[in-house]
Amino acid sequence: MEKVHFTEEKATMLATLYGRALDSRLDDPILGDRAADDAVRRIDYDFPKLGLTGERASAVVLRAKPIDDWAAEYLVKRPDAVVVHLGCGMDSRVYRLDPPPTVEWFDIDYPEVVELRRKIFPEREHYHTIGSSVTDFDWLDQVPSDRPALIVAEGLTMYLKPEDGAELLRRLVAKFPSGELICDVFNRLGIKLQKINPVVRKSGATLYWGVDDPREFERYGLDLMSSLDASEWATPDVMARLSPATRMQLRMSKYLPVVRTMARIGRWRF
Ligand SMILES: C[S@@+](CC[C@H](N)C(=O)[O-])C[C@H]1O[C@@H](n2cnc3c(N)ncnc32)[C@H](O)[C@@H]1O
């Protein structure tokens, strides 16, 4: 067992890992991420204390599923891509998507997080980890710049200061010949109401960057391809697998635009 001690934004990745592990224990899971459950069983940590149980655990996999689907679509189109997975935490996305050997995959998070990843997850060819803050931009030199890039950032943007997030996007767009960005954003109200989110409250993390309209990224050279607000993350097939309580919550959120648009997933090209 690996004993861990993480605080603030680094602790939040243990909550999302636990959400995926709980999903994988269901008879009819949405992501079915067995690697997440194996990881949870090997880490000595009081996972439920971050408040991500029951309905909130479903929200984690509901967000991850369309991100996985969009990422898989891109890699079919561009099997020569590099993947830059920012704020990867303990997400086993590389094992879920299992890209072909022509794809070079980079997982980036703080050094302590990457150190834990290296202990828990197996190595694989064409897979690399970089231990750095995403906003200490020297890490960019470790990633080849002559290939199309798929940039994925799940549960990261809101933790960045707006000016740092903007600079990160500008540098990524400038670095690669072309690519796609897939990430989620909170709107400014979501940032204001951050303390109603138990994971944020219990981890002691602070959220900074709110994005009301995904077209705001156009100023960094990113063209919006599609975006889904929280009520649209579940496809009918996924909806059918949710508990009645979660289904009801999602249906109700459709009629509450303020809640519905608090968290959004987007896909942009450059
Ligand atoms: C909510 S977790 C999400 C983790 C993972 N993407 C997932 O979905 O399970 C937020 C992650 O962002 C990372 N993070 C936040 N700010 C960061 C920064 N400036 N540089 C690198 N990683 C950062 C945290 O360490 C944490 O792993």
TrEMBL record:
SUPFAM superfamilies referenced in this protein's UniProt entry, alphabetically: S-adenosyl-L-methionine-dependent methyltransferases (SSF53335)
One Pfam family named in its UniProt record: LCM
GO terms of biological process kind: methylation
Protein name: Class I SAM-dependent methyltransferase
InterPro entries, per database record: Ppm1/Ppm2/Tcmp (IPR007213), SAM-dependent_MTases_sf (IPR029063), TcmP-like (IPR016874)
Keyword Transcription: no
Tagged with keyword Iron-sulfur: no
Sorted UniProt keywords: Methyltransferase, Transferase
Gene Ontology MF annotations: methyltransferase activity
Gene3D superfamilies in alphabetical order: Vaccinia Virus protein VP39
Natural source organism: Amycolatopsis samaneae
